Amino acid sequence: MKRIAIVTGAVGGIGSEICRQLIKDGFRVVATYRLENENKAKTWQNNLIQEGLNIDVMPVDVSDFTSCSDLVNRIVSDIGPVAVLINNAGITDDATMKNITSEQWHNVLRTNLDSIFNMTKPVFQTMCDNGWGRIINISSINGQKGQFGQVNYSAAKAGIYGFTKSLALEGARKGVTVNSISPGYIGTKMVNEMPQAIIDSIVKEIPIGRLGKPIEIANAVKYLVDEHSGFITGSDLSINGGQHM
């Protein structure tokens, strides 16, 4: 029986590559999407199926605990227990402290940090009971170094580190590893659509001299979920081309 993996924020550039990699590695993948993006998600699913990659898609509001619990209950009932969770969903809503609103602050914290708890709580104990599990939380270079105009985003992404390390201690003796990945600037469609002058200014700050590739993040996920990666927990993989060391 294939192990079941959930990937949140799956329809984006990084999420898509993570899903592809997990399917190729023999997992049954459930990709989540926001309900308002249903048409986009179905098109995305059909594109993967045409690539020969069968995938399930299900809606969830990662900022809402009940929605996340209902999703997990549906997966367990219809498919089976969740063995891998990739917390990849995230948004930005940038503003300086002078201009940021309470709504902007809370929307980003709920989606980028509360979501980690909301999705992990319903699956963690079952992983422990089954003696095996992999949880990977996608953070960001800006959670490590900060970023002008991103107090909300950077705070949420920094909070992921404390969550990851603390939960790793709880799962360590039970076969459940909990790690994080901190991407730098990755050449997703969203980034590549920025003005070339801005892309050039970003690349100048990256010692390797280019943007990262989504497959490079997916490959790190492949490594951390592997059967032989059970001695790695409470760790963070910084994948940023040397931009922040």
Report on the architecture of this protein.
The chain has 245 residues and is an alpha/beta fold. Helices cover 48% and strands 16% of the residues. The protein has 9 helices and 7 strands. It has a 7-stranded parallel sheet with strand order 3-2-1-4-5-6-7, sandwiched between helices. α1 crosses α9 (214-225) and α3 (65-78) runs parallel beside α4 (102-130). It is globular. 42% of the residues are buried. The model has no long low-confidence stretch (mean pLDDT 97).
Helix content range: 40-55%
Succession of helices and strands: EHEHEHEHEHHEHHHE
Instruction: State mean pLDDT (0 to 100 scale).
Output: 97
Strand order of the largest sheet: 3-2-1-4-5-6-7
What's the total helix number? Answer: 9
Number of strands: 7
Radius of gyration, taken over Cα atoms and rounded to an integer in Å:
17 Å
Share of β-strand residues: 15-25%
The low-confidence runs, each spanning 5 or more residues with pLDDT under 50, are none
What is this entry, summarized?
The protein has 245 residues and is of the alpha/beta class. The protein is 48% helix and 16% strand.
